[in-house]
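quick q for whoever's on today - can somebody do inverse folding on this one?? i tried earlier but teh output was garbage lol. tokens:
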């Protein structure tokens, strides 16, 4: 079996933010958004897909600017940025400068997809 060198895992930020529960902060933001718009799960999944490349995810899709990825034609209908921004703000207050934006996208997407439940 090949060793895994990636470090993102459930609880990765535990004890890195003065015991703030980073994952529950993101989960709360996602839950609030999902309560009013279930389609946000698909939107965040699409955002994550558009942000990740063969070498990994870098949150470059979140960058603003006239020539940014956010403004690229393929990404113009990507949505859910306000959820990520809200989570970034909450984490910035609880645990400044610690949680990567790419990890926020991944955690938010994971939580939104989990809230979606099974297809019936």
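ok took a stab at it. sequence:
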């Amino acid at each position: 079996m090949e060793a895994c060198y990636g470090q993102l895992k459930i609880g990765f930020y535990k004890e890195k933010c003065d015991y703030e529960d980073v994952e529950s902060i993101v989960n709360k933001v996602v839950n609030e958004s999902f309560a009013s718009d279930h389609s946000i799960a698909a939107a965040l999944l699409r955002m994550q897909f558009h942000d990740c490349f063969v070498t990994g995810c870098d949150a470059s899709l979140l960058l603003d600017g006239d020539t940014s990825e956010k403004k690229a034609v393929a990404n113009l209908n990507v949505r859910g940025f306000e959820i990520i921004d809200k989570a970034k703000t909450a984490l910035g207050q609880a645990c400044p400068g610690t949680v990567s934006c790419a990890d926020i996208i991944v955690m938010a997407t994971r939580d939104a997809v989990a809230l979606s439940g099974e297809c019936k």
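fwiw Helices lie at 22-36, 40-51, 81-94, 101-116. also The first strand starts at residue 52 and ends at 53. so keep that in mind when u check it
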